[in-house]
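thought: fold this chain, then report.
action: predict
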Amino acid sequence: MEAGEDALSNETKDEIFTSLLLTIEEDKPSGELFSFLYDLLVEFSFIDQSTKKLSERLDFFDVFFSLLFHCDVSLQVVLLKKLNGLVHVYSRVKGYCCQHNWQHRLINILPQQNPFVLQEMLHLIETIGTFSIFPRETRQLLRLLQTPCLSYHKSQTSNKSGFHYWPAIVQALERMAKHRSSPQSFLDFNGCSSGLHLPSFSTWPLTSGYTFALWLRIESFSDPTSRENYRPCIYSFLTNEGFGVEVFFLQNTLIAQTRQGKSSSKTFVRLNYTFKDKVWYFIAITHLYHFFTTSEITLYVDGKQVDSQQLVYPKFEKAPEYCFSR
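observation:
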């Protein structure tokens, strides 16, 4: 029995799941069902997919578009607009779509669509493309310009809606090349199981102070998958014995914390600046050691000092074993 379940392909599982949903909905998918699917897409995008076996995953694309094509054209357009808006808002959803080849799969089904549905699909391809697009998908779109049923002259004579495919594809390609919503290259961490792990130091070199600077963008200050200890971490330098320092987000503010051993109390401060989600910031954190007075930590945001507070400087009996950012 277990072997039989393992042998089920993703496609079979997707078909079974879709069939069950259609049975419940009496073959007419409702708006409530698609609201559930939108929430599911956000949750999927925040799950670390590498921790799951391929056979355990559900292909959201197949499920969503199989259900979509059971709706009439006007509802398809509305639902695609909502999907496009969701993808536009969340960078992690864009990354999920890229990881699962949405652009390639959308382009493959474009020629069979109603002009209004096709236009919304092109907008969706464009939205994902402002995040990332591969050469294969670019070549696919360029080849569509040579497809007879999608050519400019053909659409003038046969498309009663007046929608011209050729200029729409060219405009989508142009906007994907120019209107980027993020830097060309960046690291995407999920705030829990991914991050940047640095090699440990032989000795702690920062005895008088340090500055940690980076560009960052927080996708969400609350975890849609409801994981415990969701604390996006700027940096953490800790030993096995519990000595060290770390700075992390608690909701939309930063907490700086010094640890003096596992059994000792933690000293922490809340840095007084409220961050917004989905906004790029350049931040710098300076922690200076003072011999006669309490050491202080200072936060700079976009080149301006926004807060400075007293915080005990970390003492290391040996170099930290855990050095990471996530």
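thought: worth noting. Strands lie at 196-197, 209-217, 233-238, 243-250, 253-260, 267-271, 280-288, 296-301, 304-310, 322-325.
final: tokens above.
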